[in-house]
């Protein structure tokens, strides 16, 4: 692949360096604008596969509230967010649920689990 | 009348931390008053991650952060009254409250911690012309609908204002299947943190339009659309720049205001800049024995800052209640100098290190020096942005000689 230019804002720390990167699709050829070395790892990962924690809610029965907040227990490919959301619309939990309980394992083949982020007592 | 050592009003991150810290500092009878049915305040609906990075070195979601504090509180002997609405507060520290369980309450407290948080600015506070249809929400109300009540407030959404809650909701609503058409910000710079612009807007290809505002809302029963205009350097709409956008929902993320009705009833002096109590580094207000912390004091960027002020308020409120807080010296004013838009706390009472929270008046995207004089301390930062609070600490020992006032300035290096 021929060299391409791309602009990134590094989110490793609050400074938020604006970085101009020349890359060949998966590797950095050159970069400027970053104030420290941490951006290199960030940009490299962004080029290969942007990874994020997904936070959302799923339905729950038998509790005070109809939904309970959940998240992935590790970062997952951002491009899989729509398919993960779709899978999560199909489930309905039963209270009680404890914080950090695993709600779904190996979501969308990522190896990550979906875990509850609050305790929801039965009411 | 019920009697307690320390009464804390509000159980968000500030109030929870203050109650825990008051107990740890030796107060025997600590009472926490919460108007909702659960502890935790607004954290319960902030289901995104990014909380506690500074304080706990952990990337918690809001509910996880709250639950960590609640579990810590449960280990103390702090008494909690839920569903309890404080209706009055007097300068001699008597609280009037109502609750279905306890009825009408009068509570006399040796010291009080205010931790009521803030509320959102609404459509009337920014005066948008047009009709009054359904479908106009503040971003925080939409957040509650989606994350706690399980409703989606709309399908085609325009967001006015680029405050953090608006940015977070742009991502959240997109994930839930709504189409967020754009975020419009009247200022020439964003209101929220840079990492939220990147992770909430750029990640989902949601456009951010700076120097734009909503000049009209259309629709009779339900929002049918909005008119967007460019604004000039004086924030006035530019004639001929209007553009009509079809949408069913308008979210407002146009600022937060500390909720100080009770503070006013107690005769507490408020700051015109922060709209919260004028406060010392010990978190004491102008009324002796009444302390303040978190977003009722000034609107903070990070929960870590909120909790930090909560810890200070809890510590000093406990000491006051126990009678072990020295009368100390007459406080001096802490004053905003060059390019300082907002400053907290506003007074220094020589009891602790001075931890200052500062917002620049104008953005400086170059290295800056924050000068605190006296004692003439100079602290360097890589930039100063109005949307990102700067926090600096001046040790108590350096301030012992201060006589009149302390001036804080931000200068380009």
Question: What does this entry look like structurally?
Answer:
The complex is a heterodimer of chains A (123) and B (413). By secondary structure, chain A is an alpha+beta fold. Chain A folds into two domains: 45 residues, Single Sheet (N-terminal domain of TfIIb); 62 residues, CPE0013-like (CPE0013-like fold). In chain A, 16% of the residues lie in helices and 35% in strands. Chain A contains two helices and ten strands; from the N terminus they run βββαββββαβββ. In chain A, the strands form three sheets. Chain A has a five-stranded mixed beta sheet with strand order 8-5-6-10-9. Chain A has a three-stranded antiparallel beta sheet with strand order 1-2-3, with helices on one face. In chain A, strands 4-7 form a two-stranded antiparallel sheet. In chain A, a hairpin with a 4-residue loop joins strand 2 and strand 3. The radius of gyration of chain A is 19 Å and the shape is elongated. The mean pLDDT of chain A is 93. Chain B is α/β, with parallel strands linked by helices. Chain B folds into three domains: 189 residues, FAD/NAD(P)-binding domain; 133 residues, FAD/NAD(P)-binding domain (3-Layer(bba) Sandwich), CATH 3.50.50.60; 84 residues, no CATH class. Chain B contains nine helices and 27 strands. In chain B, the strands form seven sheets. In chain B, strands 1, 2, 5, 6, 7, 8 and 19 form a seven-stranded mixed beta sheet that branches. In chain B, strands 10-17-11-12-13 form a five-stranded parallel beta sheet. A five-stranded mixed beta sheet of chain B has the order 22-20-27-24-25, with no helix packed on it. In chain B, a hairpin with an 8-residue loop joins strand 3 and strand 4. The radius of gyration of chain B is 22 Å and the shape is globular. The N and C termini of chain B lie far apart (58 Å). The chains are: A alpha+beta (123), B alpha/beta (413). At the A-B interface, strand 5 and strand 6 of A face helix 2 and helix 6 of B.
């Amino acid at each position: 692949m021929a060299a391409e230019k791309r602009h990134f804002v590094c989110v490793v720390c609050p400074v938020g360096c604006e970085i101009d990167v020349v890359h060949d699709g998966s590797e950095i050829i050159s970069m400027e604008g970053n104030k420290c070395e941490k951006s290199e790892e960030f940009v490299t990962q962004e080029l290969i596969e942007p990874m994020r924690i997904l936070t959302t809610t799923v339905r729950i029965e038998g509790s005070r509230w109809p939904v309970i907040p959940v998240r992935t227990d590790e970062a997952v490919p951002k491009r899989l967010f729509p398919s993960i959301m779709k899978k999560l619309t199909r489930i309905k939990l039963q209270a009680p649920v404890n914080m950090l309980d695993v709600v779904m394992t190996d979501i969308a083949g990522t190896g990550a689990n979906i875990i509850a982020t609050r305790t929801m007592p039965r009411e | 009348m019920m009697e307690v050592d320390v009464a804390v009003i509000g159980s968000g991150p500030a109030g929870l931390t203050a109650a825990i810290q008051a107990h740890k500092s030796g107060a025997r009878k600590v009472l926490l008053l919460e108007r909702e049915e659960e502890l935790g305040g607004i954290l319960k609906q902030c289901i995104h991650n990014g909380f506690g990075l500074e304080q706990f070195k952990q990337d918690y979601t809001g509910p996880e952060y709250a639950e960590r504090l609640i579990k810590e509180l449960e280990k103390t002997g702090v008494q909690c009254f839920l569903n309890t609405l404080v209706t009055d507060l007097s300068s001699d520290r008597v609280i009037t409250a109502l609750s279905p369980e306890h009825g009408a309450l009068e509570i006399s407290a040796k010291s009080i911690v205010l931790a009521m948080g803030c509320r959102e600015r609404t459509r009337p506070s920014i005066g948008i012309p047009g009709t009054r249809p359904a479908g106009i929400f503040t971003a925080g109300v939409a957040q509650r609908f989606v994350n706690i009540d399980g409703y989606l407030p709309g399908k085609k959404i325009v967001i006015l204002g680029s405050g953090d809650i608006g940015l977070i909701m742009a991502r959240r609503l997109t994930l839930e299947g709504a189409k967020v058409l754009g975020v419009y910000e009247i200022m020439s710079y964003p209101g929220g943190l840079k990492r939220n612009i990147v992770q909430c807007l750029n990640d989902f290809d949601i456009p951010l339009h700076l120097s734009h505002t909503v000049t009209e809302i259309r629709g009779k029963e339900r929002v049918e659309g909005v008119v967007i205009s460019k604004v000039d350097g004086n924030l006035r709409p530019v004639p001929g720049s209007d553009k009509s956008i079809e949408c069913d929902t308008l979210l407002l993320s146009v600022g937060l205001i500390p909720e100080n009705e009770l503070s006013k009833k107690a005769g507490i002096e408020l700051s015109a800049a922060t709209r919260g109590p004028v406060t010392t580094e010990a978190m004491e207000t102008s009324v002796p024995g009444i302390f303040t912390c978190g977003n009722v004091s000034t609107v903070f960027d990070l929960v870590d800052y909120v909790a930090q002020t909560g810890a200070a308020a809890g510590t000093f409120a406990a000491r006051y209640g126990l009678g072990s807080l020295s009368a100390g010296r007459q406080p001096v004013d802490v004053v905003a100098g060059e390019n300082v838009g907002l400053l907290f706390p506003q007074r220094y009472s020589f009891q602790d290190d001075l931890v200052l929270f500062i917002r620049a008046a104008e953005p400086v995207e170059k290295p800056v020096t924050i000068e605190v004089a006296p004692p003439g301390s100079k602290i360097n930062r890589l930039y100063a942005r109005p949307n990102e609070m700067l926090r600096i600490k001046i040790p108590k020992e350096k301030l012992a000689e201060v006589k009149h006032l302390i001036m804080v300035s931000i200068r380009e290096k």
